[in-house]
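Tokenise the fold.
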Amino acid sequence: MLEKITNTFSDIIRTVGGKSSISEKNIEDAVEQIKMALLEADVNLRVVRRFVNSTIEEAKGEKVLRSVDPGQQFVKIVYDKIVALLGDTKKDLQLKGPDTQSVILFLGLQGSGKTTSAAKLAARLQKEGRKPLLAACDLVRPAAVEQLSLLAEKIGVPLYKEDTKDAVRVAKNAKEYARKNGFDTLIVDTAGRLQVDEDMMAEIEKIKKTVSPDELILVADSMTGQNAVDIAKAFDERLGLTGVILTKFDSDARGGAALSLKSITGKPILFIGTGEKIEDFEPFHPERIASRILGMGDIVSLVEKAQETVDIEQAEKLQKRMANNEFSLEDMLEQLQQVKKMGSMESILQMMPGMAGQIDPSAMDTSGMKSQEAIILSMTRKERANHLIIGPSRRKRIARGSGTSVAEVNKLIKQFEKTRLMMKVAKNKGMQAKLMKGLGM
């Protein structure tokens, strides 16, 4: 995610940020590097010029050159400018209260991830306590209705569909169905094309007029760079967008679309798609993305991701089991699965301060976790509860069942025993500390 621009910006920040004094020449050199990084990221030329001119003008003022820590002041200016490019502050969906119906109209080209994004948003709104209904109005792309049906079933959100080719009629009937059945949010998935064309625009105009949407959201592929901005501009001029969802953000190494969209179209980025799973869908926080771009990490998002994936009740039970020296292989399996839910190692590294660009995620051995999970899953419940019963014959069976070797099974059990021992030592040290404190020592 934004690897190329993050690496470049991180180097610039490290060079300038640590200087106790900087000159106009230092600033010009740094800004020139920033300019090249933005152009390489496929950021709109007009946006780059504005960014460069305003950064130089502010950075050359007395506030920076004569400050106690000019390097950090310069970094702060760059950070603020990037936040402004991305949209200043997080924008929320403008939906009506739960007692009134809200309509969200999804637009986009084929292959942008529109249908999947509609399902992801429906799942998110349902989690937040709303009652969404999906409407299948993409009647052009083969299997689009079937795809949305499968996604709707997977997330447990109802779907409205009809056996017809009249998308306007389906949208109208879906709105009425939603009203009669108490659905407070209707999400309409419309047809895309390989490129913007008159037929598509005309159909969406009719649907817009029929359902009177509160939100008209364009779904754009972030990997298409400036092309995504041009598409957003075309849709906005014809239909009037309220916001954008950028998909494939996890694969976008450059970031041109995200850095250009708000400045060129004036429309906010509302959400980003960060993977193929339903839960890989985040609100767009300009200040957090700016922090990632500058290599400063994003601890807030990392904590939120952890809170979403960790079951508090389960964590408390585990804590008690660890305190009582009852930690089992079943508990170890749960921990491995919790880490998996947080996403790819690459996305986690991006959020950790100072880690972006420092470690190549492809060089990290994540296969070890997969084989550990496979080994524990190949054990019986009795074996997971009591690792001491796992003798040589059982280890052979577990190795065969998990597609690993006996040596790997032995390694996992040794690692588990070492973890238990460390927990026991930590517990005893804690008890000793309490005893010492009670004796006034």
Summary: The two ends are 52 Å apart (CA to CA). Residues 3-86 form a domain with the Four Helix Bundle (Hemerythrin (Met), subunit A) fold (CATH 1.20.120.140). Residues 329 and 416 are 7 Å apart (CA to CA).
